[in-house]
Structures are given as structure tokens and as C-alpha cells.
Amino acid sequence: MRILLPLIILPTLLYISLAWPALLYGMFYYALSSGREFLNEVKNSVSLLFRDSLDYLGVNIVLSLEVHIFTLAVLAVFRALRPGKGIKAEIEDAGSLPLNPSSYLSLALLKHSIMMAYDLKTILSLRKYGKSRPHRRVRLDESYLLGSLMIGVIASTILLLTYEVNYVLFWNVFLLYLLVIIVFMMALGRVSILDEAAGKSLGLWHRGNSLIATYGTGELVEMRIGERTAILALSLSTGMCGVLTTLGSVLLRAPLTFTLVPITFDMLSVLTALMEFQGLRSIPRMFWDMKMLGMSILTMSLVISWGVYLSGVVYYISKILELSISTNMIVTMVSCMWMIIAITSSALLRNLSPTKRVALLGALLTLIPPLLLFL
User: Fold this and answer.
1) 274 and 320 housed in the same domain
2) What integer pLDDT is reported at residue 94 of this predicted model?
């Protein structure tokens, strides 16, 4: 027995020593072919999931980015209440307080809106009293709110008419509206941190809880509106646009992408309504905290990119396990995941100081799923 044992073990070891390269090669080839098959199946699953729902995918991507930015803005608004160095001091330390051409343009837009409220009050007084009743100091809160509602109705009507005329023109007008709203908000924030002496030279300044604008030659007309009135007017105008465009989308039977318009206006309305409680000081804080927006968009791009790919993985595994999960359910689950991550990442990114190396790594990781899907 002792003689037979080496005769059995030695040939076995010799066979293994000679066969292990072939075994390793076979295992490697099997792993490579299985991995390639898995990647192809995932690619086919992603194509099957989003082939007939590209509009739904695009709307959810844009909506998740909007939710992320909206959450950042809301957190910045409430951050303005915290004690410590004021936003004006922070901006002065950063050396970005002096006026620039864009600041002059935004302040001119704000002053013009106050002058329009003054003209509206003049027209209403003519109808009521039969003649104009000029005053050198005029309170325009009521006229300003009324004018904002009218602007919201007119803007919504123009937007819906352009949709009927041309789809590309409709989106251009919508983006123009967003630009005007952002410029107007920048003007409100700028005037809140502007020195009164510099403001008087421009004919628009902030004192106490009021915005004051002057108009005319010789004896100037001093027009006043409350700072919360200015923010409330912006909320009413965007809210009216949201309501009317929602109604228009139903009546016109607009496609799914159209829903981004009323959703965006509703978000702006809610955001400006929150600003009303904090006052104008919350607006500079919001724009100041938006300096991390580039990293935020990179983070959400990473999440969206891997979310699309992993949805294909989930669908492929569900087919293997013979689970009855519909494609719409998977796409909806992925969209909900994007929304949750959009909200949580807005809070987490505010406490991080990302470096260029981290940003480069994030950009490379974002490109991996598209490369796996299209190569």
C-alpha cells in the first residue's frame, strides 16, 4: 500500500502541474465570455427599457436636476437666518461687491417694474377720480401685486400661443422667461446689499423693509414698495404662469416634455414664497451658495449615468429570476431614486470641499456607463 500511494500521488501532481495553464486559460475564457454576454444583455435591457420612453427618461433627468438645484436654493434661503458673518461681508471679502454691467441691467429692470406699477396706479386713479392725483411719495404695494398678476397672465398666454405656432420658438421663449426671472431675482439681491449712497445715484435703494425708487426731473417722485411685496409679486407671477400652463397642457394635449414648463414655474413660485419670510437678505445667500453648482451637476450626472445602466442590470436579473416586473415600474423606481439622491446630495455637498482630482475622477466615472452601452 505504501508503494502504491506515491505511484498515485506523483502522477496526479504531475498532471495538475502540466494542466493548470490550460485550466486557468479555460476559466479565464469562460469568465471573459460570460462577462461579455452579461454586458450585451445589460445593453439590450437598457435599450428595451428606454427605447419607447425616451421622453419619459429625458423629463426625469431634467426634473431630477431641477429638484437638486431647488433643494440647494431652499437650503441657502434658510441658511440666511444663521448667525455669523453676513453675506455682504463675505462678498466684500471675496472682492465681488462692485457693480458690473449685468448688475446695472438687472437694477434697471427692477426699477422699470416699479415705474410700471406707478403708471398703473396713475391709470387707476384717473378712472376713479376723473383726474390724476400726483404725489411726491407714493406707496405702490397694491399696484405692484396687481401688475405682477397681469404679467403672469400675459406671459402664460404668449407662451401657449408660441407653442401653437412653433415648438422650438416655444422653448426659446420659455428659456427667455427663466432668464428674466433670474435677472430680476439678482436685482432684488443686489439692491439689498447695495450701499444707500450708491443706490441713490442709481435712483433705486433699500431702506428698512422697503425698496425706494425715484422718478422724474426737478422734484422727484419717490416710489416705495415693501421688500416682501417685491418677493410676493414674483411668487404670484410665476405661480400664475404655472397654473395657466398646466391648464394649457391639458387643453392642448401637449406631450410629456411640456410638463417641465409648469413644474419649473411652480418650483420658482414655491422658492420665492419661502423667500418672503426671510426677506431680501436670503437672495444674495442663495446665489452665493450656487457657486458649487458645477460640482452639483457633475454629481447628478454621475448618479443619472449609473442609474440608467443599473436599471438595465436590474431588468436583466429580473428576467433571469423570472420576476414579473414591468419596464415602467423599473423606470419609475430609477426616477424616484434620482429624486431622493438629488435631495440628499444637495445637503451633503454643502459640507464638502471637492478638489480638482475628485472632480476629474467623477467625470471619468460618469463616462463609464455610456462607454459600456455604446462600445
Assistant:
1) no
2) 41
Non-local (6+) Cβ contacts of 95 within 8 A are none
3-state secondary structure of 354: coil
Q: Contact, 301 vs 253, CB < 8 A?
A: no
The total number of structural domains that make up the chain: 2
Half-sphere exposure of 92 (CA within 13 A, CB side): 8
Q: Dig out the grid coordinates for 23 from the structure.
A: 485550466
Same domain, 52 and 90: no
Q: Could you tell me which of 46, 40, 35, 37 has the C-alpha nearest to residue 334?
A: 46
Q: What burial class does residue 85 get, using C-beta atoms within 10 Å of its C-beta: 0-12 exposed, 13-18 middle, 19+ buried?
A: exposed
Return the residue matching grid coordinates 454691467. Answer: 101
Give the other-Cβ count within 10 Å of 217's Cβ: 5
What pLDDT, on the 0 to 100 scale, is given for residue 266? 92
Helix, strand, coil in percent for the chain, rounding step 5: 80, 5, 15
- Of the residues 258, 280, 302, the one at which a domain ends: 280
Beta strands in the chain, from DSSP E residues, in sequence order: 137-139, 204-207, 210-215, 221-226
pLDDT at 186: 85
211 DSSP β-pair partners = 206, 225
CA distances from 300 to 68, 239, 293, 329 (A): 8, 27, 10, 21
- Say which residues have a Cβ less than 8 Å from residue 106's Cβ, sequence separation at least 6: 183, 184, 186, 187, 190
Q: How far apart are CA 73 and CA 342, in angstroms?
A: 13
Q: State the pLDDT at residue 240.
A: 92
Judge if 99 and 232 occupy the same domain. yes
Q: 3-class SS at 326?
A: coil
Q: How far apart are CA 202 and CA 174, in angstroms?
A: 30
Q: Do 340 and 319 belong to one domain?
A: yes
Burial label for 333, CB within 10 Å (0-12, 13-18, 19+), is: middle
User: What averages of pLDDT result for each successive group of 10 residues across the chain (375 residues)?
Assistant: 54 54 60 74 79 75 82 77 51 49 78 85 66 66 89 92 90 92 86 78 80 73 84 91 90 86 91 82 77 74 80 82 75 77 70 69 81 77
Per-residue model confidence (pLDDT) at position 96 = 45
Cell of 38: 452579461
